[in-house]
Amino acid sequence: MADDDVKVSGDGARSPSNATNGGAPKNGKKGIGIIVKEEVEAFRAEMPGKVKEQIESVKDPTKTQLYTSIFRHKRDETPRNRALGVLSNVFLHLHPAKINRDSVRYPYTWGMGGITFYLFIVLTFTGVLLMFYYHPTKVQAFRDVLYLEHDVPFGKILRNMHRWAAHLMVIAVELHMFRVFLTGSYKKPREFNWNVGVILLVLTLLLSFTGYLLPDDQLGFWAVTVGTNMARATPLLGNEGPFGSQLGMTPYNDVRFGLLGGSIVDANALLRAYIWHCIAIPIIASVFMIVHFWRVRKDGGISGPAPVMLASEADKPRRAQSAAGA
Ligand code: HEM
């Protein structure tokens, strides 16, 4: 059999007439081209399913089981498929499948909510890196800051990124609130989200305030002294506030004492500021941000400007407009 093949292939290959009759020699025997083709077809017919699948997958990877198990539908440009693409992806589904183009334009939102969130991410990242160098104790805190400023590679830029992002976050959150106010987005159905926003504003300010004490320098010390002295005058809860003394508040049990962990700004205050700043407030703020973003979607997405319409269009009856494809 093997010898036959060799002979046929030898004849076929050498015969000049093969060029015109598709590789079949004149003597009636099959040419090499036909034999090879037949053998390939026979092999294909017997080919186990897995090998077949492997060959197909090289030809078109989108048909493999692996691909279809990850991407559940085709990638054609129909609105339905595009929506499904967003909804079935863990990251993309955080965004709505469809949005009003006008409502996400920068001239409308100023991008300030997004920028505030972005700054929060920058602060979390740089803050975690700062935690590798900082100890919240009276002996070490200020030395750590000096060490960061002068000796740690990229320490100065790390610390300043954190400081500047903190200042910018306070500015951005206020501008965001101002934009929401100007566009009337605090009104029904967004009143609840406005209140969530107010809590986020307070948390942002508290993050800033607690961070101020951490370098344990003169600036932070006196800022916290003044700030917590105000707590003394809190109604009901401060020993100098209205109804405070009647309720039994003293410098040793009132809200100021609770904030500082004592009656003066000292080691306990530093430790408390550190824990509020690095753990408690960021966690609470993250939870409120999740609620805030979720609520933006549940309230029908970002409010959006009034639809632009010509005066003539506004006069037309609705049905006539939709028939004209408006
Ligand atoms: C950490 C602070 C905050 C973050 C990260 C944040 C983030 C966002 C983002 C990303 C949006 C989507 C629209 C946009 O970017 O303008 C939004 C919408 C909104 N925010 Fe904030 N926000 C914060 C604080 C506040 C504050 C302080 C208020 C008000 C007191 C507020 C009230 C609202 C309202 C009512 C909406 C819906 C606006 C609309 O539908 O047009 N947010 N926020």
Q: What would your notes on this structure say?
A:
- With 326 residues, this protein is mainly α.
- It folds into three domains: 2-46, no CATH class; 53-88, no CATH class; 112-298, Cytochrome Bc1 Complex, Chain C (Up-down Bundle), CATH 1.20.810.10.
- It contains 15 helices and no strands.
- The protein has helices at residues 2-14, 32-46, 49-59, 65-70, 79-87, 106-109, 112-131, 141-150, 155-182, 191-213, 218-232, 255-260, 267-298, 311-315, 318-323.
- Residues 1-23 have low confidence and may be disordered.
- The chain binds protoporphyrin IX containing FE.
- Residues 109, 112-114, 116-117, 173, 176-177, 180, 183, 185-186, 190, 193-194, 197-198, 200-201, 204, 289, 292, 296, 302-303 line the site of protoporphyrin IX containing FE (HEM).
**Count of helix runs:** 15
Helix % is 55-70%
C-alpha geometry: elongated
Q: Which strand-content bin applies to the residues?
A: under 5%
CATH homologous superfamily grouping of the largest domain: Cytochrome Bc1 Complex, Chain C
